[in-house]
């Protein structure tokens, strides 16, 4: 039988810490399992192996037991108290997103969570009770003890206590001594960044970091007018995080070969330094090919990063230096010189940990809130979106077609506003015009669900819109759908293979769906450009175009129950890519409904050049329309146009990336644009299509709404101006 270990009682009643574990570089604790009770062995000078002769002779020595109460939490108690803790029903439950909205933990600007927040029940401390929590720490090249301090936040009697903790690097846990005779209701382990404080005088000062002597800040004489206190922090790069980001989006994040640690300064200096401050940063990476990669100096002045065009010199191997007049954070990156500046800055923000790449997923269901249409809106990390999709589909939810948001650059604890627009509203009892999602990296499910009702004062169109507003640029991502069509396709059984993904969870999420949008777009799958057959013969008549278009409609139309169509969730996501622009949004609309929509459209303010053309169909055929995207639907575009409003032709042409010559020609040939064209421009801006593809998308969109005049105009502009480029774009 293994001998037990005696733990000397060296508790300090004032500090409430376990001095017996002050050496955080100990070997991993040896824990032996004994019917869910563990004997703890700490190989330290404060521990000595017991023998049969001296156990009874050491009066101040105590034997401790470890109880595993959660997969990531254990308590260490005296052996005589172990049975009482085992008999109590002690639970640890993670805080939900709603809990985090209603409650706040006391964090400073230098604090960050390294565990979830756990709500506890039944945890009453006696004496000599400690808690050990599994923590999540960044994988850095600098020792965690050199850059962070560790604490445990404990809630008791509706107040929070901050208790010092000891980090055990061998098994990645935080050990904390709990106060005696106290009921614990919530716990959370945090880390606090350590600052190096210096005072810069009028004579100047050279700061040399204790963590890396190659990192220096040289304040020359006369840089400040009076003594200035400065706090300097070193924020290391999490290499594990970088690896995950490059796996998620290699096209974007592989453009950053390496990045130095970020040096952050805090000072009460309301203006630029009188003289430039020299910054010297180490970079442990060599440039493999100077034709493709180059060192860049990144400076943050508050929250926005920028690339300095000043000279960045290599003072010694792997050490770069430059001079700046002001900064809050600084770093050096080895970046691809052929990458756009916007993409480089976006990648730097994410890699540095200042922001996260997030997505909003929108699901619908009729089985949660009284069988009425309900939306489930969830904010997730982009790298976890596929896993969340599968989980939600397994729970019976269906992703809303075309709702997949672009990658959003969101900071921790930042809010994303969600507003309902157009033809739906919150049901009575929900006194809100908007919801918001608060991003929290540790929250497992950050979502809300609410029923929606149709506005009774609105007329027949069922299309609705949701707007997500995020980031300081107030970018808006619109989502729109028809709840009536959605409900029919969800509830009515069908054998149509194209609709299976609406009624059943999809297990095969192919790589053709959008991987990233926004900053740094990556679209996987074969490139399928829209083929403009009419460009082969410039004398082709309108009747030939209509005939060709009608044949295309018959080939692409997919019949669904009730003559109402809705693309599958998988096709919806893939069709948003400009690389998959063939056969988007296959659908049918009854002739009577289409006629009604045309009458509604004629009542809207418009800038039609001449009456729209009509399809000539035999009397025994039903008029059909094929829309490449829901935004090309006349009903949907009409409703969304009310949200976006109108714009001038010149502004629209600039948005599309046309040149000055193109704008002049377009302005000469028309006096304005239809409001639907504004919506189309918004969509094209998000797709970031090539210029020739945009012409094709414009033609197909105008064909879908019977605007043959604009189809001719688009084709004429394309044929007459093949040689123009975007180099003279304003």
Write structural notes for this entry.
The protein has 4 domains: 5-193, Chondroitinase Ac, Chain A, domain 3; 196-351, Chondroitinase Ac, Chain A, domain 3, CATH 2.60.220.30; 356-491, Immunoglobulin-like (Sandwich), CATH 2.60.40; 533-720, no CATH class. A hairpin with a 7-residue loop joins strand 18 (205-208) and strand 19. It is flat and about 95 Å long. It has a 7-stranded antiparallel beta sheet with strand order 2-3-6-7-11-15-14. Strands 17, 20, 21, 22, 24, 25 and 28 form a 7-stranded antiparallel beta sheet that branches. It contains 18 helices and 41 strands. Mean pLDDT is 65; it is low at 1-59, 456-461, 488-652, 669-676 and 723-730. The termini are far apart. It is an alpha+beta fold and 730 residues long. Residues 650-718 form the Death domain. It comes from Lottia gigantea. Residues 496-550, 568-589 are annotated as: Disordered. This is Death domain-containing protein.
Which residues form runs of ≥5 with pLDDT under 50? 1-59, 456-461, 488-652, 669-676, 723-730
Number of strands: 41
Class of secondary structure makeup: alpha+beta
Topology-level CATH name of the largest domain: Chondroitinase Ac, Chain A, domain 3
Strand content: 25-35%
Shape, principal axes of CA atoms: flat
Organism: Lottia gigantea (Giant owl limpet)
GO biological process, one term: signal transduction
Protein name: Death domain-containing protein
InterPro entries: DEATH-like_dom_sf, Death_dom
